[in-house]
Amino acid sequence: MGHQVIIFDFSLIRGLWETRVKKSKERQRKEKERLEKSSLEKIKQEWNFILECRKKGIPQSKYLKNGFVNTDEKILDTYGKTPQVQKRRALSDEANKERNKFIFQLSGEQWMEFPDSLKEQTHLKEWHVNNTLIQTIPPYIALFQDLRVLELSKNQINHLPVEIGNFNNLKSVPPELGDCENLEKLDLSGNMEITELPFEV
């Protein structure tokens, strides 16, 4: 009994394999072209670009041109290397914190009177009180010698104390308002019953 030798022609198998590989590569190429032309892919790229810009603190005006996203990679490179925007933002935040130390803000209909703690904050330079149910300005407003802005819009205030004040549904303004040497702005708009200001003002 002799040995049988089986001979295969590998060129047929190789040809079949190469044909399949070619078809697979062609499918991949067509899919890639389809994705590149797809608006969905472009939107995804633009969205990722916008997110990256926002992370780096790049202002919207830098990456939008005529309302359209300009995916210029140089913008990202420039802002990535220079942290000046972040420095400016930090300085601006610091300046705002410093400024806010001198500003009193009160809003909401739950307020029917000024908080007691306010009388101890005589260093304040601005009062912004709006949309409250407060009816009177406390006489201790006279202690606020550095007061520059007194905004009292949309409250229930109907008269000013002689110590000083400003605002709604006013029928008259006290002459003592003229004693406020540091007052820089007095907005009495919307008070239709005031026909004239005192001579002292």
TrEMBL record:
Domain of life: Eukaryota
Organism: Nyctibius bracteatus (Rufous potoo)
Gene3D superfamilies in the cross-refs: Ribonuclease Inhibitor
Pfam families reported for this sequence: LRR_1
Name of the protein in question: LRRC2 protein
Gene responsible for this protein: Lrrc2
Record key words, sorted: Leucine-rich repeat, Repeat
GO cellular-component term (any): cytoplasm
